[in-house]
């Protein structure tokens, strides 16, 4: 139910490392790819929702939005702020695969890429295997989507960034999105079945090159990945900005965060929780009943200063939209969500090594209770490592706060990408990654779980 922020960006093998895309899609720009700069740094160029524009992401976490100009240059703005950052980019001819990024020369990293269609749970899914060039065995990570409706094949930058780090990637469009068939859903079990099918397809395509294989995903993926790993074991699971509480509790925790971050005390919190309860009643009725209670609370508290800050994960829509609109849109937006799904039984008994990466300032999927639960599981013997970035929100993005309280994301934290790289390659973490607080599972615990 929590949103995944896609801040990133058909059969064949493409030698130069470019990615094939559907005709007419926003990702047809031939400059899309991962580039190695002359100083050794990695920069990825990916698609945006604006067809003419591009987005760059560096492995240090910095990012910007690129706009083309008639002289062949591209100018950049910082993160998602729209504010110029002084970076200029120029590309060579598409066949040459060159880039000049902020005065540094670079070349596109070549990959072995195979696009495919495979069977999920009753649907045909579109996928892609991206491997580093060569014949050696490499670890493979299957990218599991969140609750977004966008195409992972078009927009996930990790399908290029990881292979440039020596890691294979299998990426696929969620059912009902992009080039995949079926109806969009947030049914975790059904999505777990699709993820298991993706692992099987990745192994089939990779053949002898397949080494360790596991999942990486965010948001909703935090419910889907462990469930899939419990049904059909893999070597590792990486969850970003996911939750160890139910989808219903997520909305409640988000409302609590709304009030706490504004400095309101227990008296206001009690009133806000009345709204959370009324919202839950509507959700549990499949959007059919409960509107009278919510309307009464809106009339009772609507003019109080704290009320405008009640957002939650779902409640904001119930408060903003008229009842007839909620009844129409709700079942579509939250199709199949198991509202009371408790992930803890799976996590208590999952032997797969896991890395959970959380943002302390996540207002969409607040991390405090999840962090507490995960550390408790680690102490109880589960092979779980936890990393909490203190200044990051949903999507593991650092941000600026405007005077009205709105947020503008600026970058991923330093150490975010290298943390995932190390865990996929070696199954363990280093001593530090940027300013993240690490709760690493003891090596013996992780090693034991892999046998």
Describe the structure.
With 451 residues, the chain is an alpha+beta fold. The protein folds into three domains: 33-108; 111-246 and 341-449, Alpha/Beta hydrolase fold, catalytic domain (Rossmann fold, 3-Layer(aba) Sandwich); 247-333. 30% of the residues lie in helices and 26% in strands. It contains 13 helices and 20 strands. It has helices at 152-155, 158-161, 188-206, 221-231, 247-261, 266-284, 291-301, 315-320, 323-333, 344-349, 368-379, 416-426, 443-449, and strands at 33-37, 42-47, 54-58, 63-68, 73-78, 84-91, 98-101, 104-108, 111-119, 124-132, 138-144, 168-172, 210-218, 236-240, 354-359, 384-389, 392-393, 397-401, 407-411, 437-439. Strands 9-10-12-11-13-14-15-16-20 form a nine-stranded mixed beta sheet, with helices on both faces. An eight-stranded antiparallel beta barrel has the order 1-2-3-4-5-6-7-8. A hairpin with a 4-residue loop joins strand 9 and strand 10 (124-132). The longest helix is centred in the middle third of the chain and has 19 residues, at 188-206. The radius of gyration is 22 Å and the shape is globular. Residues 3-27 have low confidence and may be disordered. Residues 1-22 form the signal peptide. InterPro entries: AB_hydrolase_Est10 (IPR053145), AB_hydrolase_fold (IPR029058), Hydrolase_4 (IPR022742). It comes from Dyella mobilis.
């Amino acid at each position: 139910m929590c949103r995944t922020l896609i801040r990133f960006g058909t059969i064949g093998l493409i030698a130069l490392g470019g990615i094939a895309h559907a005709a007419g899609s926003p990702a047809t720009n031939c400059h899309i790819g991962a580039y190695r700069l002359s100083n050794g740094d990695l920069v990825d160029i990916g698609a945006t929702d604006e067809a003419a524009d591009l987005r760059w992401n560096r492995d240090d976490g910095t990012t910007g939005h690129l706009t083309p100009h008639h002289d062949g240059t591209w100018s950049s703005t910082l993160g998602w702020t729209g504010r110029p950052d002084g970076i200029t980019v120029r590309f060579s001819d598409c066949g040459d695969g060159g880039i000049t990024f902020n005065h540094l020369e670079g070349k596109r990293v070549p990959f072995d890429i195979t696009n495919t269609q495979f069977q999920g749970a009753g649907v045909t899914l579109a996928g892609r295997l991206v491997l580093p060039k060569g014949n050696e065995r490499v670890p493979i990570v299957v990218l599991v989507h969140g609750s977004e409706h966008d195409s992972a094949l078009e927009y996930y930058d990790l399908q290029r960034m990881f292979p440039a780090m020596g890691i294979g990637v299998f990426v696929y469009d969620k059912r009902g999105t992009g080039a995949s068939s079926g109806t969009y859903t947030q049914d975790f079990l059904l999505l777990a079945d699709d993820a298991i099918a993706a692992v099987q397809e990745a192994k089939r395509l990779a053949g002898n090159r397949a080494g360790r294989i596991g999942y990486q995903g965010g948001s909703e993926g935090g419910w889907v990945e462990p469930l899939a790993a419990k049904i059909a074991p893999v070597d590792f699971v990486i969850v970003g900005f996911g939750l160890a509480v139910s989808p219903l509790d997520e909305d409640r925790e988000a409302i609590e965060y709304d009030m706490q971050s504004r400095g309101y005390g227990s008296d206001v919190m009690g009133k806000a929780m009345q709204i959370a309860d009324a919202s839950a009643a509507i959700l549990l009725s499949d959007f059919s009943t409960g509107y009278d209670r919510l309307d009464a609370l809106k009339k009772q508290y609507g003019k109080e200063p704290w009320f405008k800050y009640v957002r939650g994960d779902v409640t904001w829509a119930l408060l903003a939209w008229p009842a007839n609109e909620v009844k129409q849109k709700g079942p579509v937006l939250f199709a199949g969500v198991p509202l009371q799904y408790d992930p803890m039984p799976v996590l208590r008994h999952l032997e797969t090594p896991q890395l959970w990466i959380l943002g302390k300032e996540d207002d969409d999927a607040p991390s405090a209770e999840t962090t507490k639960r995960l550390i408790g599981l680690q102490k109880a013997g589960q092979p779980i490592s936890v990393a909490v970035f203190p200044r990051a929100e949903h999507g593991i993005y650092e941000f600026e706060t405007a005077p009205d309280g709105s947020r503008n994301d600026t970058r991923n934290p330093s150490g975010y990408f290298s943390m995932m790289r190390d865990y996929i390659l070696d199954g363990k973490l280093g001593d530090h990654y940027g300013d993240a607080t690490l709760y690493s599972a003891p090596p013996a615990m992780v090693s034991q779980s892999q046998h």
